[in-house]
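User: Predict the complex.
Assistant: Input components as received:
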Amino acid sequence: MKILFTNLIILILFVLGLFSCSSSFDEDNSQDSVQVVIDEIQEEAINDNVFYQVPTPNELFAVLKNSNAPFNKEILNDASNSGNYFTKFSKALNFGVYCADLAYATSQGSFEDAALLFEAVKSLAKDLEIENAIDQIIFERLKESLENANADSLFLISNETYYNAFSYLQENDRQDILGIIAVGGWIEGLNIILNLEPYSENSEICQQIADQKLTLENLLIFISNVENDKFTDIVNDLTMIEEIFNQNDNSSDEAEILELSNKTNENGLIIFGGGNSLTLSNNQFDQLKIILMDLRTSIIEGN
Amino acid sequence: MAMPLFYQSQKECYNTVSFCDTERKEGFTRNMQSLSGAFAPGDTNIVQIVVYKNMEYRVSLCSPSHPDLQEKLQFKVVEEVRKGVWKENTIEIDSTYEDENFEEVTVKVTKTQRKRIFETIEEVRYDNSEHEMSQEFIFSSTNTRKLKIKVYVPSTESDEMSSGISGITFACVGLLIEHQPGVITGFRR
């Protein structure tokens, strides 16, 4: 009996010993499994084999054409200022500014302002030697559209004006002037939409402002080869604007990335869906408004 | 020598897009993001554009200098997305434990480390080779987004590819992008 009891104790201890070994083994194994680290890979910003294109102010205002914001002519650069620009740099910047103003004015059917702005654009086009931007044919069509109060035609003509100028500069390898015009146009376009209405989180205009982040990213690459000392300050300002846009960047938050999807509507049109919608906070809106105002003022004052 | 020759062929292809058929009568307007260029056989070029929410876009290709390439030009519309993936790798670390003699023993232990990495991948939104090599594509988008259009010019069977002034074999290709405001659905104030 005593021997049996002793053997039982030994057996129990032996079994307990086995369990303790396996427990520590399991514990080691559980430490084997997961050590999670969240990491992010930085994507390359520029690919030399890719052409980075930029939408124009005309395209921006085509989207906003039917928005309910009232036309505000106070936002425009006074057409009479076109005589105050004496350097090629200043002329090119303000050519872009006036093209954006023209796109805005024509999108809103403001004929009187459009007529004055066309004159400003024509004058600067001549100074920049891109006269074919508004050749005689365009001018005749412009006169006809103004006489007939044809807002749609005016808007198309403003688009063609910009398109012709762009094409001419590309053909003649004047990429520097092209880049400067693109910057002037983008700055003015953004300044206009920032001043259309007060901040409203879910409004169409607020969404368009937030979306300008994508245009700016392409614009910065588009102008990366422009060599001009005066341009450096503007590029620095554009970089600061980019930083403001990036303050609310939630692109790395996977939980909010919507799966991409293609749908076809009843007319057979394919609609790209999914992906993140950019957002803009009140704070970002205010910061952008201040920096754009300062930047734009220095441009239209010819500094 | 290649650079000046390439430069010359690009100059010859200036504004090819202006010869592409437009859909102006359907309300489309030429978009400044269009591009023209010289393509050697087998070339691929990539253009990154920005498309605005609720705008309709028409993308089309043409090669007026080489009508035989019509219906053969290939293009894809791709979008880069950042996706989180789990990556595993095995590492060795020192693990210390007490043996039966209560002495510290250090051994090398293999562990699996899982990292959450955000990769940029390309998703193909449209491939014209899956749509009977259509040379045009019309679409809209629910969000403003960046898209890459990859244009590929296949090698031709004939030897008639133009050599042009520069002497290199190339074709002028126009990537015409047009836009028009889309229909905005839903109630509006």
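Chain B has one helix and nine strands.
Let me know if you want any component modeled separately.
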